[in-house]
Amino acid sequence: MKIVCGEAAGFCPGVQKAIDTAKEELKKGEPVYCLGEMVHNKVVINDLCKQGLVMVKEMSEVPGGFSLMIRTHGAPKEVYEEAERRGLKLIDLTCTKVKKVQSIAETYYAKGYRIIITGERDHPEVIGIRSHAGPDALVVSTIEELLEVDLMEKSCLIAQTTFSTSRFDALASYALTQNRETKVIHTICHTTSKRQEEASRMAEEVDLMIIMGDEASSNSKQLYEIAKRKCTHSLFVQDVEEVDPDKIRVFEKIGVMANASTPSELVSQMIQKIMNGTI
Fold first, then answer.
1. DSSP-derived secondary structure for 197-228
2. What per-residue string of b and e applies to 111-143 under the rule 16 or more CB within 10 Å gives b?
3. What is the DSSP letter of 61?
């Protein structure tokens, strides 16, 4: 049996920086609150909660004067405004790539463009971006949804940083055929694109593809979709316990790729257990 692990598997620089910052803040011994999951990985979140991080769903759950972390996906503008009103100390862990998309959306809306965001409508990153994009901003993820849009208007097409590169390219191509004046800005994170490209190549060369990631993670779902298109036998798992050993032993070559929020130690654990036949 041969195991191939993606070079881009595991934490991206933005996630690593956010986790390192969170741990440093927690060392101070004061309560730190986070609005939503800081990253989409239950193992990482559980570890941070043991160190003192308090997860909340609503701003009202954060006592006045305490620290509030903004997760890597970012947050709507209203969160910042309310935090300032209530005297909360903001620890902004928003990924720099996400902040750039927010800035692009705000800039082009101010120039009179209608912003079209390609991504998952209910994803926290998209919700945050949309708050910078004006009241007429739209979110689409398929050609069918884009067909309903009047592309003759002055529009700017951008993407959630973890959206599928191939799907964005297809949407952008269609938009430009309808109106060559459409402003298309490729805002998918380079690390995301690299991981997707590598997963696609690996899936063509292996008998089984294992994608590690959280079910709430957008980039995990994109990786799994890519793997399935190229490799009939593809699995989407959150940890090693979800893998059936009897299904693994029949494959000669196995590929392992992990999303941007999966710790490298979990990837190593998966590989080691497959090699030892102890899963």
1. HHHHHHHHH-SEEEEE--TT-HHHHHHHHHHH
2. eebbbbbbbbeebbbbbbbbbbbbeebbbbbee
3. G
pLDDT tens-digit map of 31-82: 899 999 988 888 899 999 999 999 999 999 999 889 999 999 999 999 999 9
* 125 in catalytic set: yes
pLDDT in tens, 77-96: 999 999 999 999 999 999 99
pLDDT of residue 102: 98
Of 94, 115, 120, 102, nearest in space to 225 by CA: 120
255 class by beta-carbon count within 10 Å (0-12 exposed, 13-18 middle, 19+ buried): buried
39 within 8 A of 19, measured Cβ to Cβ = yes
Token representation of residue 162 = 């973890």
At residue 279 the predicted structure's pLDDT band, cuts being 50, 70 and 90, is: very low
Structure tokens at 114: 């209608």
DSSP string of 91-120?
A: EE---HHHHHHHHHHHHHHHTTPEEEEES-
Q: Report the first-to-last Cα separation within the chain, whole angstroms.
A: 14
Q: Among the options 125, 145, 198, 215, which is catalytic?
A: 125
> Going by DSSP bridges, is the β-strand pair 2-5/32-35 parallel, antiparallel, or unpaired?
unpaired
What's the rounded Cα separation, in Å, for the pair 116 and 138?
Answer: 5
For tokens 């989407």, the residue is 236
| Mean pLDDT calculated for residue range 203-230 | 93
**How do residues 92-127 score in pLDDT, each as one tens digit?**
999 999 999 999 999 999 999 999 999 999 999 999
pTM, to two decimals: 0.90
Per this entry, what is the length of the chain?
A: 279
